[in-house]
Structures are given as structure tokens and as C-alpha cells.
Amino acid sequence: MRHVLLITYEFPPKGGPGVQRPLKTAKYLSRLGWDVTVLTLKDPLGGMMDGSLLDELPSAVEVERAWSLEPTRLVAVLRRLRGGGGGAAQAAGTGSRGYTSMPRGVIRFIQAFFIPDEKVGWTPWAVRAAHRVHTRKPVDIVLASGPPFSAYGVAWRAARRLGVPWVADMRDPIVGGYFFRPPTPLHDRLMRRYERKVARSAARVVTATEGIMRDIVSRNPGLTDRAVTITNGFDPDDFTRADTAAHDGFVLTYTGTFQASIRPDTLFAAIASLRSADSVVVRDLRVRLVGPADPDTGSAIEEHDIGDLVDRRGYVSHPEAVEELVAADVLLLVLGPEPESAHILTGKLAEYLGAGRPLLALVPDGVAADVVRRSGAGEVVHPEDVAGVAAALERLHEQWLVGALPAPAPEVVAEFDRSRLVARYSALLQRVLDLVEDE
């Protein structure tokens, strides 16, 4: 049995979308006969916590945790000294325990001091932890998932020390990413140099979308034969366990966070315009927002005077979020209008498809829009088109009234089945090991 060391900063008991890909990869690699050890963060300080996710791991999967020295811990200490330690909400995993509540400009200022990110302080402890794992049970191959991109630095150092190959799994791009824009030109140059180091040292680079793969290959031509795409997906096990709760009205559900230009404002403006026009949609419409509350969304709800139509559930465990998906009449997908959004194939979309529900996708033309159209799952509208969103809501409501809402095509849904996607990962890891043995 081959031993793979999966290095990922994002892993349960942390919650949120970033943990799903490494968690499911570990789960299904173990089922496919790999001996899996996960190397992740000890004592995470993130605000979203979901310890229930650890129940999904097969008992054979071992988890090694390494401490990290980073700004988050300093901020937490300062808050405790000021008497603002977070109390019960943080203990329950529902509060913010880092610096993410700070203004965006302050966060970018902090990040400017670190390459590739502020999690780089995890590296020395994580490399030593990798060596401990190898001493107990020799590692055959290292797989690192990011962001945070510091996981790749841990991987190439650990792989060199252990004398084994490593594979980089890119959920988001190191360079040119929508959520990871360098705060200074110097930072940009250093991030590009970091990307080149990853491209040269990794035996394979796996990207979550074709767009990410094309971009990194364009900057690193030597990677052409070593870069592949394995998309995000959904876990069919999650949906076989989910219960469908009864509800009243025409329920439009969004799961996750709103941030940067991924905003609900266009939707809210469309709903307000339907109300002004006395549309029958508003009579039945109920909007459910499932995810961490943010003040900007609350302000937008008040601005458009639609508080009676919006239910903000806050952050819930992943099983509860899945139940919200299957219970909805229509699922809302939102991306920003920027050109970079064309390359984003968010894991949220895969889970929406797994739920088998219709979609209202407020996204620009790109890979997400193409998947929604190809699946026949619902409506695609530009994220700034208020009138288009209002018209789409009216069409979906008419279909709901007569029981004729669309559903995604099963053959497209099957493309995003995690068990199939991780089987491709398993084959890739085995090919890398076969090539090493043939050398």
C-alpha cells in the first residue's frame, strides 16, 4: 500500500468551502487503497469551525497537526489582553477568531509583509512534522493543496528532505487570482517567482479549472506536460444522507459568504423592483442566506427594504448546509463581474449540481456559466443586470407554480462526482510513482 502525505492548511475542524477538496480527497484516496496521512494545522484560529466533518474520514486516515506562528495568533493574544477574547461564540466555532473582521486595507497591509501569504510561519513546524510522519511510516509521495499557498513551500521542502516526489493541487491560482491580488508590484514579482518554484519542483500541478491551468502554463512553458485539471466536485454521500425539509413559499437559497464584488445587491435590487411593480413573485418569494453574516449584506437588505423576504441563517455545519440545498426551490450562485471570474468554477456550483436543484446563476460568461447552460439547470444572468435578474425570477416562479422547474442533466452532474474525480487523482499519483521507479 502506497503512503501519501496530504499537506493542507485548510482541514477540519475548520469549516468553510476551503476544507472540502482536501477532506474528500483524503476520504476517497483511502477508499481506493492508499495509506493516507493528512498534515494540517494545529489549533486553528479560523472563525468557521465544523468538527462534524472529521466524522467523514475513514478510520485508516491519520491526521498529523503542526503549530503555526502567524499574525492571526498575535491578533488573538491582543484581543484576549483587551478582554475581547470571543467567548462562547468562538468556543462554538461561530465567531471570528482571526483578523478577518479588520478593514480590507489593513488585511492587505499585513499580507504585504509575507510571501506567499501570512501562513508562511507554519512552514518550519510543518516540515518537521512531515519528517516525523516519514520516520514512523515512510512516505512515498507528497500532495499539497492550497491556498494558503504556503502549503507548497512545506511540500517542496518536505519532499526534498524525504527524497520523494510531490504534487501541487491548486484550488486557486497563485498569480492572477481574483481573491489573491498582490498589494504591491514587488509582491507581484515575488509571487511570480514563487509560482515558478512550484512549477519547476512539482512532479505534477493539478488545477481546479482549465483557465487556471492555461494561465500557469503560459507563464511556465516547461509545465505543459505536467499540468492537468481536476475540477471541484460534490460528494454523493453527503446527499444520500440529507433530509428534505418542508417549507412554505418559493424559496431561493444561497450558501456561503459574500465578499469583495461577490455581492447580493443586484438580486436585492431586482426583488425591490418586482415589489414596486406589484409582481406576484414577491407574494411567494423567500430568500434564505446560509453562511456567516456580514454587515454589508445587512445594509443592502435595509437599503432595498426587503427584510421581510430574507432569512439570514448564519453559519451552519456542512450537513445542515446540504439539507438547505436539497430543500430549496432554486439555488443562487453569484460571482463578481471582473474578467478573472470567467475562470472560476467554484465548489459551490458542484454542490448545487449535486443537490439536483434549479439554479439562478448571476455570473459573467465563463466556465461557470457554460456548466449551468450545458446542464440545463436554470437561468444565467450577468451579475450587474438588475432587469435580467428580475425577469429570470419571474420565469422561475412561473415554472414553480406549475411544478415545471428545471433540473440539471444527470450526465453533467456525474462529471462532478468526487468519487470519480479522486479516482483520477489516484491514477495520477500512481503514474508519478511509476515514473520515479522507472528512472
Q: How many helices does DSSP assign?
A: 18
Q: Which geometry do the CA atoms define?
A: globular
Stretches where pLDDT falls below 50 for ≥5 residues?
85-100
Total number of beta strands: 13
The radius of gyration computed from the alpha-carbon positions, rounded to a whole number of angstroms, is: 22 Å
Helices and strands: which structural class? alpha/beta
> How helical, in percent, are the residues?
40-55%
Give a brief rundown of this model.
44% of the residues lie in helices and 15% in strands. The protein is built from 18 helices and 13 strands.
Describe what this molecule looks like in 3D.
The protein is an alpha/beta fold and 439 residues long. Helices cover 44% and strands 15% of the residues. The strands form 2 sheets. A 7-stranded parallel sheet has the order 3-2-1-4-5-6-7, sandwiched between helices. A 6-stranded parallel sheet has the order 10-9-8-11-12-13, with helices on both faces. Helix 12 links the parallel strand 9 and strand 10. Helix 10 packs across helix 16.
